[in-house]
Design brief:
There is one protein chain. The protein has 221 residues and is an alpha+beta fold. It folds into two domains: 95 residues, Barwin-like endoglucanases, CATH 2.40.40.10; 73 residues, 2-Layer Sandwich (Alpha-Beta Plaits). The strands form two sheets. A six-stranded mixed barrel has the order 1-5-2-4-3-6. It has a four-stranded antiparallel β-sheet with strand order 8-9-7-10, covered by helices on one side. It is elongated, with a radius of gyration of 24 Å.
Length: 221
């Protein structure tokens, strides 16, 4: 009788540890499945924060910087990279989710001061935005590295944008693309060149456009 009790006593910890491991494994699998897919979009109201919070810890534990391109979101996993487009002016910025919020009803995302400034929403305080998921946590991506682009034009007529793209492709040895954006129900087609790691390279390309009669504006993504 004592021998049987001893065997049960020795086996129980092993079974208990297996149950914990199985629970953790299932939980981990569920967490991975809950990661958002690239390309998923949300439309809502963005606000910004950062003056009083500068230097305080975020939900991830890292120090918040008003000059970093980050954001707070209520549900997206920490580390998610998103593109936020201000639908009122067409400007966009890429940020990393590293905090929770905003804790105001009706608002979807809180941008850092630097991110909000880059899409011209500081003065108004809020903006109607589109949030597009670029990269889920744990996946390699260089989208959050600062990149510069050269915008040559923005048209409501798609054919004008395509004609400009064709002309630029003949003259430049760079990637030229047309990006469509909806601003308050109106469609605009932006002609953009490249994605440069250094501002100097973007400025050089912008300067080279002058000899062809075009003006390029360097933009930080």
């Amino acid at each position: 009788m004592n021998k049987r009790c001893l065997i049960i006593f020795l086996v129980l910890p092993f079974l208990f540890s297996c149950a914990i491991f199985s629970k953790k494994s299932v939980s981990r699998r569920q967490e991975i499945k809950s990661y958002p897919k690239e390309g998923t979009t949300q439309i809502g109201i963005a606000s910004w924060y950062g003056i009083e919070e500068h230097g305080l810890p975020t939900a991830t534990g890292e120090r918040f910087s008003k000059d970093a391109f980050t954001a707070a979101h209520k549900s997206l996993p920490m580390g998610t990279i998103v593109r936020v487009t201000n639908l009122e002016n067409g400007r966009d910025v890429i940020v990393k989710v590293n905090d929770r919020g905003p804790f105001v009803e009706g608002r979807m995302i809180d941008l850092s001061y630097a991110a909000a400034k880059s899409i011209a929403m500081i003065r108004k305080g809020t903006a109607n935005v589109k949030v597009e998921i670029i990269s889920a946590p744990g996946r390699s991506s260089d989208f959050f590295e600062p990149k510069y682009i050269v915008q040559v034009g923005s048209f409501r007529d798609k054919n004008k944008a395509l004609n400009l793209k064709s002309d630029l492709l003949l003259r430049l040895n760079n990637e030229v693309r047309v990006e469509k954006i909806d601003i308050e129900g109106e469609k605009y087609y932006r002609v953009r060149i490249g994605r440069f790691s250094r501002r100097e390279d973007a400025e050089k390309t912008s300067h080279s456009l002058k000899k062809f009669g075009y003006r390029g504006k360097v933009i930080l993504e």
